[in-house]
């Protein structure tokens, strides 16, 4: 049995089914007991947590009634009465809150010697959140006291995870999340400092300093205080062209350059396991495994498109520097005020022109009609405005087509495995916070399936052609999902859980891409 508190309060039986717990008062009693797993909670304490000073004269009888209802729903020998109170017979690890706390403890113990392992544990913990904690619990003193504590636990864990991502050089994957967190909690200086760090690591120094000014103004206006020491320290490091005190160096002692996603060794499974890193962009590999730099890297003007309908994202080429340049790891210099203003105006003009072009493209599509799509094993995306903004996020995307909802824009491969001619990829959209499986070189009857860590899955069968992709599952982070191919001969080929960095394209033949 599993009791879930980090979202809607619910109970999952051993066979994976959700027990019929619908009324708010039994949920509240269950939450009061599950927050202290295996302990006897006095009846008076439960009454205070449910009603507080407004407890009715019949509170004890009403509580006994709710306990009886719970006992009928829960498996036998799980809810006990005695010693003037009630005990829910579960171990801490049988609650999602208990597992979260254990993962946080292990991550903090490993941070110093194994930051990558600590980050993996924090990512596992982040997947346990299913929304606002204690949802479905009645408005009560229990909810008023415990919900803020759980929310603070969530925010503190997010700050720790962001800090590890930055220290490991994963600015690419975490920037959007930090930006969302900072916008949702504008007075939380930790998120603001981390957003400044991520922006500066990308070379977006002007935006990083703008975050400081906005945060400082808000703190003064709303709280009448100046920013704390950490936020001021980050600003000072940026202004002095530093940042070495907090910038991650990633693998090999360097900050990852935009456009050069690092390969992760051992990401594949089974017979197709890769024992070495995939070659970086701009290199090829001969049969002996020696790299040579006789091929030009893709440029922003490349006509080659991915199978999910998008050209390589412009962000993949911004700031790409010669890997032999000894200055590639030097701190980004702070431009003069005049140059910064020219850069800002240039960006505004470019963004405005792009927006106008996009609008004209949509109008042309509406008048003339969409361009005929190439035949694939997946539905066409004619109903989706090309290059349009994604129209779903998280759970809203579950079971939906990524192309139709615009989630294919900015997507990247988080894990991949090859099996003969078959390529299985976990495609991840940080914007939509969703993932799906893509299979290439498959046969009719093969199935593309994506599996989410909590047991949810989506799949699509290939009816013709050689490639297809599954509907989406919710994936707050790449590690929340893996991609599989179920072959018609009974074999199953799966990737590992997604990694925090994009993989280089596993195949250079773009005609096979999705």
From TrEMBL:
Question: In its keyword annotation, does this UniProt entry include DNA-binding?
Answer: yes
Listed GO MF terms: DNA binding
Q: A Pfam family for this UniProt protein?
A: Trans_reg_C
Q: Where is the composition biased (Basic and acidic residues)?
A: 261-271, 317-328
Q: Say which domain of life the source belongs to.
A: Bacteria
Q: Where is this region: Disordered?
A: 242-335, 372-391, 492-514
Keyword vocabulary terms for this entry = DNA-binding, Plasmid, Transcription, Transcription regulation, Two-component regulatory system
Similarity-based family: Belongs to the AfsR/DnrI/RedD regulatory family.
Q: What is this protein called?
A: BTAD domain-containing putative transcriptional regulator
What is the originating organism of this protein?
A: Streptomyces rochei (Streptomyces parvullus)
Higher taxonomy = Bacteria, Bacillati, Actinomycetota, Actinomycetes, Kitasatosporales
